[in-house]
Amino acid sequence: MMSQRRVILLMLALCASVSSMAIAQGTTAGPPPQGPPGAGPGRSSGAASQAFSFKWWQDARFKTELTLAVDQCRRAEDVYQAILPRMTADKEELDRLERRLSEVIATGVLPEADVVKLIDQAETARAQLGKARTLMIYRLRQILTPDQRLKMKALHDEWEKQRRQGPVRKRPAGLPREGGLL
């Protein structure tokens, strides 16, 4: 049997890793003013139509630089709207499971086997959301011509470069580095 101290340390490490995963996925901050093509999940609150992707097919710059036809923009919106209910449901389920996991970790009263089951459920929900998003991106790319895909990659690479050159986020003083709890 684990000592109470080891269990507490394990729970703190788990809590820290769940928090760092959420931060790494950008779930705690809003999307950039102009996101990349096919940007990932954004805020959990706000308009559902803006929650999962930068709608590049509606952006004037992307329409111009990619020379998107009206039909391509309509088809892209159709792809987005078709998958939006699934992604919304997957995101709500993930949020629910993460809240439950945080509560369980904070109280520390469930047996470890039950915590492991809850972790598995949350990670499965996260994977489902990721699969839906990746499928959406694949379907959106299929609408583009090979030349437009090359231009899209160049636009995305430019956005990534600008994002990386932006302000560096510093770790708040007094907090351990990731994984520094054990």
Notes on the protein architecture:
Helices cover 64% and strands 0% of the residues. α1 packs antiparallel against α3 (70-107) and α3 (70-107) packs antiparallel against α4 (112-143). The chain has 182 residues and is mainly α. The protein has a domain at 50-164: Four Helix Bundle (Hemerythrin (Met), subunit A) (Up-down Bundle). It contains 5 helices and no strands.
Quaternary form: single chain
**CATH fold description of the domain at 50-164:** Four Helix Bundle (Hemerythrin (Met), subunit A)
What overall form do the CA principal axes indicate? elongated
Architecture of the domain at 50-164, according to CATH? Up-down Bundle
Annotation, overall tally of beta strands: 0
Order of helices and strands: HHHHH
SSE diagram, text form:
Blueprint: H1 4-24, H2 60-66, H3 70-107, H4 112-143, H5 146-164
Notable features of this structure?
182 residues, mainly alpha, Four Helix Bundle (Hemerythrin (Met), subunit A), 0% strand
Describe the structure concisely.
The chain starts with a helix and ends in an 18-residue tail after the last helix.
